[in-house]
Each structure stands twice: as structure tokens, then as C-alpha cells.
């Protein structure tokens, strides 16, 4: 944590020009990456929205992060769709569909 803390910024101040967290389109018409990590062995699932740097070697920005604990797959898919409706992912929503897997059956 001591290594990461110097990298932290106050997004309300530093990103005020292009990031409005309560707007219908928080990042306007700029593309973002949406990443999803499904829970496989008891941990919780995670979803992040990352702004790509504008220039090579620039900084990535984590705009949103969510953890899904105890949510079924349909509820997680609805949350992912909600995030994709608010932002402009660089890939269509169907590209994210492979991440939302059905639980494995034990025989």
C-alpha cells in the first residue's frame, strides 16, 4: 500500500475536466475498457472500468470498481450491462458475454 499511495489522486479535482461520476455518461464519448473477473473458488467477482491513456506511456485511470458478493449470474450480467450502458466500452457488450459463465455442475 505504501507504494501505491503516492500514485493516488483526488478524482473530483484532478479529473474534473472529463470525468463526471454522476452524469448519465460519466466519461462522455471517450472509450473505456471494462474488465470482469468471475468468481470461481469462493472469492467474489469483480468489475472495473478503466480509462485508457490518451498518449503512449500515459496513465491508466480506474473510473469505477465493483465487487459482486452473493449475486447470481443474471444479477451480475444486469450490473455489467448497466455499466456498459453508461460508458462506451471499446468492445461491444457481446464480447463481454463470454465472461458471464454458468456455474459448473458436480457429478
List strands and helices in order, with pairings:
Elements: H1 11-14, E1 31-37, E2 45-51, E3 61-68, H2 73-86, E4 88-89
Parallel strand pairs: 1-4
Antiparallel strand pairs: 1-2, 2-3
Explain what the structure shows.
- It is a single chain.
- This protein is an alpha+beta fold and 107 residues long.
- The chain is built from two helices and four strands; from the N terminus they run αβββαβ.
- The chain has a domain at 26-99.
- 17% of the residues lie in helices and 22% in strands.
- It has a four-stranded mixed β-sheet, with helices on one face.
- It is globular.
- It starts with 10 loop residues before the first helix and ends in an 18-residue tail after the last strand.
Task: List the defining traits of the structure above.
107 residues, alpha+beta, 2 helices, 17% helix, Terminase_6C
Distance between the termini: 42 Å
Strand content: 15-25%
Principal-axes shape call: globular
Task: Give the SSE order as H and E letters.
Answer: HEEEHE
What is the helix tally? 2
Largest sheet: 4 strands, mixed
Strand order of the biggest β-sheet:
3-2-1-4
Indicate the structural class. Answer: alpha+beta
Beta-strand segment tally: 4
Mean pLDDT: 82
Helix content: 10-25%
Are there runs of 5+ residues with pLDDT below 50, and where? 93-105
- As a whole number of angstroms, the C-alpha radius of gyration is 16 Å
Protein name: Terminase large subunit gp17-like C-terminal domain-containing protein
Domain Terminase large subunit gp17-like C-terminal: 34-89
Pfam families: Terminase_6C (PF17289)
Keywords: Viral release from host cell
Amino acid at each position: 500500500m505504501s507504494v501505491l499511495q503516492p500514485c493516488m489522486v483526488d478524482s473530483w479535482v484532478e479529473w474534473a475536466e472529463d470525468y463526471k461520476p454522476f452524469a448519465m455518461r460519466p466519461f462522455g464519448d471517450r472509450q473505456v475498457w471494462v474488465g470482469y473477473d468471475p468468481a470461481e473458488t469462493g472469492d467474489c467477482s469483480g468489475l472495473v472500468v478503466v480509462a485508457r491513456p490518451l498518449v503512449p506511456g500515459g496513465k491508466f485511470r480506474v473510473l469505477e470498481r465493483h465487487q459482486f458478493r452473493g449475486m447470481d449470474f443474471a444479477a451480475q450480467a444486469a450490473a455489467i450491462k448497466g455499466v456498459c450502458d453508461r460508458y462506451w466500452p471499446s468492445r461491444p457488450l457481446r464480447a463481454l458475454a463470454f465472461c458471464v459463465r454458468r456455474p459448473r455442475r458436480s457429478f
